[in-house]
Structures are given as C-alpha cells and as structure tokens.
Structure to design on (497 residues):
C-alpha cells in the first residue's frame, strides 16, 4: 500500500462541509446574494482542491494512493483512514464538479431558505466524497448513512406537492437496506481480529456460507442505492418530487454510491459468493436494462422518463461488474461517470422548462425549437447521448459492457444490446414531442431561450459529454491497473479450508 502524508483527501471531504456549515450559520434570507456567492466560491474551491488528485495520480501504481490514517476511536481500532484508487478518483472529481453545477443551477430558481438549500448541497458533497475515500469500514458506513440526511431535507423541504411521501420513502428504503450492512461490518470486524480496515477484510478466507450471507447483506444496501429491480420504486417518486438540484445530485452521484459499494465490498470480500451468485446478479441487471427500459417508454412525465432511464443505465453498470472481465468492468465504471454527466444534464434541461412553464408533462410541450433554438440543440445532444450515440460519452461505457458481455456469453451480450434500441425509442420519442412539431400551446410561443447562466451550465456539460465520447482514454487509463488487480483478486478462491 502506498503511504503518503498528503491531506488532499481530507481537504476534498471537509472543504465543502466547512463552507456548507458557514453558509448555514451565517447565511440570511434578507441577503441571498451573499449566500449564493459564498456557496459558489465554496463549491469552486472544493472542486479546485480535488484537481491535484488527478495531477498527481499514478496510473501504473498498485493499491491505494494519497493514504491518510489517523486514530479515531483507538479502543476499538477505528481509524480515520482514507485512500483512493483508479475506481474512486473520477467519482470524487465528478462529485465536486456536479456540486458547482448545482449551485449555479439554483442561482435564480431558489428564492426562499437559500442558505439552507446551498448548505445542504455543500455538506452532501463532502459526505459523498467521504464515501469514495473511506478505507475504514465504520467510517464508510458513517459517511454512507449520513448522505441520507441532507438529501432527505432537500426533497422534503424544496420538493413538489408529494415531497413528504417521497422523502420518507427514499429514507426508509435506503436506511432499511443499510441495517444488514452494519451487521456484516460488525461480523467482519470480529472475524478479522477486531479490525475495521477494508483492505484487511479483502484478504479474509471465509467459508462459502458466510460469503453468501455477507454478499446478500451488502446487496440489500447497494441494490437499493443503485437502484436495482425490484427495489427501485423509491427513485421515480424521489426524482419527480425533488427540486432540480436534488434530481441532478441523486442521479449523477448518489446512485453511484451503491455501484461503488459492489466494487469495494461485495466483490473483493466475498469473491466466491460473487461468482456463485453472478447469474442472479446478471439476471437482475438484464431485467433493469430491458423491463425498466420498456417502462420508461410509457411515461408521460419527463422526470419520470429520465428517472426510469437512469435505472436502465445503472443496470448496465452492475452487468459489467458481474461478467468478470476487464472490458466489461471498465465499461461499467465509465458508464457510471458518463451517466453522471448525461443524467445531470437531462434533469437540468427539464428544470429549465419547468422554471418557465411549471409543468413536466410531455403533452404540455411541442415545437419548443421554434422559440428556444439554443436549448433545443443542447436537449437533442443530451437525448442522443442518453441513448448511446457514438461520439458521446453514453456510447463508450455501454459499448464496452456489451463487448465484455458478448465475450462472457453471446446471448447475454445480445440482450444487453437491446438497451440501445429501447434507449433510442424513449429518448427520441420524448425529444420529438417536446422539441419538434407544431406549437400547439400558447405558453410555448412565449418561451424565452436560455440565459447566459443556463447556457454556460449546459454548454459546459455538453463539452464534457462530447470530449469523453471522443477521447475516454484518461478515464480508462486511470482505472486499468485497479480493475485488473480486482479481477485477479476475485479470480482466486478465498474459501476457508
């Protein structure tokens, strides 16, 4: 394990949390401008402190980098232990970047309780980065569970008419799923000789029945978070009721916490159980890809359509993890990053329309291109990326997963490829009815095109989606060694003699 005296990871975690607390304590509703600028500066600084991670990351190094380890609760061997590898690097950068976008998106939209809104997002950003950095099992659990609180408040306070129902459903689903994970963490603590060190857990030789029980315990938390079918029903409700920023963070980052958990816990700690249950996981993933793709096609609400498409796209991620080859696993991780940008952009686009018309129903639009040409161009680009158009980031991850799946089993690869057809169907259907056609509503004729703030925000995401689609090498290069090491680790039996 690479040792380092770096404090970069601590800065990445605590910088947004510190600014969030600052905004909460000193922010006042009679001076929202100061709150907005403080939040923007805080989010920018929080993003800037993550950039040295990218600059100094060694693509060819094995193990964890930028390691920090300090005693937290010494009596129980609990450490404030941080570290990242090629899997978590880009997820940290994605989290910090999306937080900046969310602050900009809320600039004119959120008019009441601005300090609480901005503070909640900044604190949430730090907590999510903590999940991706934590190398102590209990520290991971604390960060993992703590992310529920700001998001619960965001949905419950600034959400739509049924926000309380959606917030409770989100909270209960994710909390109940995580309780079994806590039991698994405590079991591993005693089994490893009173250690919460995740890397120590990776090398435990456990009997098959224990591995299966651990895998299922972790599955309860991570499947709900992804979310996988059939524990996905909280997500459409949460998305529909959440404010635009809440939907962006939920889709772009919070869903990735579950997928990341599979890579950090389920696969390396229970490798034999992972192989044994891989058919079950692949089946659930394919159901998400195909069935949820069909469900997305019949949605009348734009947010619900994109929410269901997120579940289908995350099905690709879990499929990539459980066919056990480099191409598919790297594709799954690329899909996580890509989906963060594309789904975030889609929800921002829907938010732009909602701010003007106060409706998310597809039937209330039509002919938007006539009054909002700049917006229409960006909306079409993101819709194309959402259905996996080559030269966009949406294509790269899906294509890699399909190639890896075909290598594993031709029929699984073919079933996975149907997602490209379904994705094109629901994305193009929505685009056709919202953007093109005749203007059948008077309110569409009165729409104003993107202002400078909205154009900058969506334009930046468009550049990233295209750049990642044309040149994904920096992302795949960073994760190659880590993925290869993980697959070698999972290939060796860890069943106790």
């Amino acid at each position: 394990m690479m040792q380092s005296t770096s404090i970069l990871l601590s800065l990445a975690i605590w910088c947004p949390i510190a600014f969030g607390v600052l905004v909460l304590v000193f922010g006042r509703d009679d001076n929202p401008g100061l709150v907005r600028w403080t939040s923007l500066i805080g989010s920018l600084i929080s993003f800037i402190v993550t950039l040295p991670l990218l600059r100094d990351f060694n693509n060819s190094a094995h193990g964890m980098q930028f390691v920090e380890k300090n005693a937290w609760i010494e009596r129980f061997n609990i450490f404030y232990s941080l570290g990242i590898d090629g899997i978590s690097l880009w997820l940290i950068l994605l989290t910090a970047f999306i937080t900046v976008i969310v602050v900009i998106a809320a600039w004119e939209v959120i008019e009441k309780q601005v300090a609480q809104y901005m503070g909640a997002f900044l604190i949430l950003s730090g907590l999510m980065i903590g999940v991706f950095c934590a190398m102590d099992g209990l520290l991971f659990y604390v960060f993992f569970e703590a992310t529920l609180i700001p998001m619960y408040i965001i949905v419950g306070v600034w959400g739509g008419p049924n926000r309380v129902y959606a917030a409770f459903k989100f909270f209960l689903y994710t909390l109940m799923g995580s309780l079994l994970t806590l039991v698994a963490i405590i079991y591993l603590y005693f089994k490893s000789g009173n250690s919460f060190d995740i890397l120590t857990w990776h090398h435990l030789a456990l009997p098959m029945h224990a591995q299966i029980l651990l895998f299922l315990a972790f599955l309860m938390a991570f499947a709900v978070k992804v979310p996988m079918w059939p524990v996905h029903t909280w997500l459409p409700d949460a998305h529909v009721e959440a404010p635009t920023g809440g939907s962006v963070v939920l889709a772009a980052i919070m869903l990735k916490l579950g997928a990341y958990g599979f890579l950090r816990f389920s696969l390396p700690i229970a490798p034999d159980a992972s192989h044994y249950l891989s058919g079950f996981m692949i089946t659930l993933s394919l159901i998400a890809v195909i069935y949820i793709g069909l469900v997305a096609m019949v949605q009348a609400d734009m947010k619900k359509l994109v929410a269901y498409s997120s579940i289908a796209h995350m099905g690709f991620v879990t499929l990539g993890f459980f066919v056990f080859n480099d191409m598919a696993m790297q594709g799954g991780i690329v899909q996580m990053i890509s989906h963060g940008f594309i789904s975030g952009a889609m929800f921002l686009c829907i938010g732009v329309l909602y701010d003007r018309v106060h409706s998310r129903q597809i039937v209330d639009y039509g002919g938007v291109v006539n009054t909002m040409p700049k917006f229409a161009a960006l909306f079409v680009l993101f819709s194309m990326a959402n259905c996996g158009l080559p030269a966009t980031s949406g294509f790269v991850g899906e294509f890699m997963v399909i190639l890896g799946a075909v290598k594993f089993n031709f029929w699984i690869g073919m079933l996975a490829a149907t997602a490209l057809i379904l994705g094109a169907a629901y994305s193009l259907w929505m685009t056709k009815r919202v953007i093109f056609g005749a203007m059948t509503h008077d309110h569409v004729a009165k729409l104003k095109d993107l202002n400078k703030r909205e154009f900058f925000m969506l334009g930046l995401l468009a550049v990233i989606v295209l750049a990642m689609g044309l040149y994904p090498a920096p992302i795949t290069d960073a994760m190659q060694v880590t993925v290869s090491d993980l697959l070698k680790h999972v290939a060796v039996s860890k069943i106790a003699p």
In short: The two ends are 27 Å apart (CA to CA).
